[in-house]
Amino acid sequence: MSSNPEILDNESIFRALVMESPIPIALLVGREMIITVANKPQLAVWGKGDTVFGMPLAKAIPEMEGQPFLAILDEVFTTGVTFATDNTPAHMMVDGEMKTVYFDFSFKPLKNKKGAVYGIIATGVEITEQVATHQALLLREEQLRQQSMELDRQVAERTQQLEDSIQDLKRSNQNLQQFAYIASHDLQEPLRKVQQFGDLLLNQYGTELKEGITYLERMQNAAHRMSSLIRDLLSYSRISTQRGTTQLVSLSTIVEAVVQNLELRIQETAAIIQVGDLPQVAGDASQLEQLFQNLVSNALKFHRPGIAPQIQIVSSQVMVSDLPTAFKPHRLTNGYYRIDIVDNGIGFEEKYLDRIFMVFQRLHGRSEYAGTGIGLAICEKVVLNHGGWINAQSIPGQGATFSVYLPL
C-alpha cells in the first residue's frame, strides 16, 4: 500500500465505492502497476484471490505478458490520457485453462493535486457471451446471404428454364397452327375433289357401274369420315392452342344459341329440353358454346330407339369442401357452379369412364352412331381451359348425367 497520505485518502474513498460494485474495478498504483484495490468481480476475472494485493500486475497475472494491456497501461500512466475500447479479446487463465474472453474496458489515470499521475483505475465488463452471440448472428447472416444467393441462382435458372419452355410451347403452337392451316386447306382440297368426282360418277354413270357402285359409295363414306375427322381435329387443336377473350358469359344465352343450332335435330328426334336458371361465368363464349353444343348433341345422338330424348340442364353451387375427391382444383376459388346435363338415353358402363374423354375413343361402332370420338375430348379441354372439371355418371339403358364444374 502507498505511504502517501493523499493517496491513502483517495484509496480509502475508492475502496468504499468499488468493493460492492458488480463491475470489475481495480486500482493500480505506480508505473509498476501495483494492485492496490480490486473488488471480487475483478479478482474473478483474473482467477486470483486477495494474495495479489501489493503485487505488480505483470507478476500477479503472468499471462499478461505478450498481450497489449501492460503497454497500454504504461502509455496511460505516461500521457495521462484515458484509454477505452470495446470488444477486446484477452487471454486469461480460467479454471486452470487458458481461454479467450472479451471485454469492454477503460484505463483512467488518477492524478494528485499537482496533476501528476500516480495510478490508474481499471474497469472492465466481460462480454464474451454477447460477442459469441454476435458472431453467431454474423455467421447466420452469412449463411442466409449464401442461401439467398443460391436461391436467387436457382430462381434465375428455373426462370430461364421456364422461359425456354415457354418458347418451346410457342414454337409448338406455331407448328400446330401451321398444321391446322395445312389440314384446313391442303388436306381438305383433295378430299373435296374425291367427293366431287365421286358425286359425278354416281350421277352420270351410276346405272352403268352395277356392283361397282357399292365400292364408290364406300369411297364416298370414307372421304366424308376423313373430312369430319379433320374438322374435329382442327377444332381440338384450336381449343388447345388458342385463348379467346375472357368476359362474363351468360350460360342461359349460350344454351339458347345451342338449342337454335340443333333445332332441326331436336325436331327430328322429338326431343324435350328443359333448361333451369343458369349462371354467368367468366370465360370464352365461343368455347363454352362448343362445350354445351357437344354435350347436348351427344344427348340427342345417343337416345334409345323409339323413345324421345328428354334432356335437363340445371345448375347449383358447390363449395370447395364438397367437391368430388377426384377433382383437384388448379385455381383458388370459393366454390364452383355445377351444371348437370341429364338425359334418358342409352347410357354407358361407368367402367369406361376414364376413356370417354380421350381423343378417338368410342364406346359404340360407327355403324350404330356417327362421329369421330373427339367431341368429349374437346369438352374436357374447354372445361380445363376455364379452371374447371367435367365428370359423368351413367347406368346402361337409363341415361347419363354429365356434370360440368366452373369457378364462381
Main attributes of the structure:
about 400 residues, alpha+beta, Beta-Lactamase, Heat Shock Protein 90, 2 domains, 5-stranded antiparallel sheet, 5-stranded mixed sheet, about 25% strand
Reconstruct the topology from this structure:
Elements: H1 5-18, E1 25-29, E2 34-38, H2 40-46, H3 57-60, H4 69-79, E3 83-94, E4 97-111, E5 117-126, H5 128-209, H6 212-241, E6 247-250, H7 251-261, H8 263-269, E7 272-275, E8 280-283, H9 285-301, E9 310-319, E10 335-343, H10 375-385, E11 389-394, E12 400-407
Helix pairs in contact: 5-6, 6-10, 7-9, 9-10
What can you tell me about this protein's structure?
This protein has a five-stranded antiparallel sheet, with helices on both faces. The protein is built from ten helices and twelve strands. It folds into two domains: 122 residues, 2-Layer Sandwich (Beta-Lactamase), CATH 3.30.450.20; 164 residues, Histidine kinase-like ATPase, C-terminal domain (Heat Shock Protein 90), CATH 3.30.565. It has 408 residues and is α+β, with helices and mostly antiparallel strands.
